[in-house]
Amino acid sequence: MRIEPCSFCSKPIYPGHGIMFVRNDARIFRFCGSKCRKNHNLKRQPKKTAWTKAHRRAAGKELMRDSTFEMERRRNRPVRYNRDLMETTVHAIRRINKIRSDREQRHHVQRMREAVAKMNAKETAQQAKAAATHQEVPEEIRAAAQAVQNMVPPKKAKISRPKQAQKEKVMVERNE
Ligand SMILES: [Zn+2]
Hints:
The protein has three helices and four strands; from the N terminus they run ββββααα. The chain is 61% helix and 7% strand. By secondary structure, it is mainly α. The protein folds into two domains: 1-62, CATH 2.30.170.20; 64-176. It has helices spanning 34-41, 53-58, 83-175; strands at residues 4-5, 12-13, 19-22, 28-31. A two-stranded antiparallel ribbon has the order 1-2. A two-stranded antiparallel ribbon has the order 3-4. The structure holds zinc ion.
């Protein structure tokens, strides 16, 4: 009995679980569930379907080539039972699983660090841009405010003056 990976999402399929589909050309597909089988029947490509391992590997989100994957490799050479070999293998499985999970964790941490650095760079760029525009705006506002302050009293005067002048003119005309 083997733990086979799902043909679509690469999830491990334990004995007694999943669906096996043998195509006309004798190629065997194993699916972890109806979701993967339906997606396969829809002729979807695992690499283009976001939730599959194939997609995650292609996007650099998973460990790709690692020596710990060698343990699970299919070996077509039959091995004669050997108690010592079995014992060392069982111990090796635990050790290798530990090493792989540590490496996966490290990979994730590294990935997140890169993502955070990228995000921070973007944020600082945005902040710098915002700061630059903010610096420009107060200057403009200050200039505009000063202009307005300078403008306002003369404006009123200007507005009132012509009227007064007109009135004066009118008065002058009437006086004449
Ligand atoms: Zn699946």
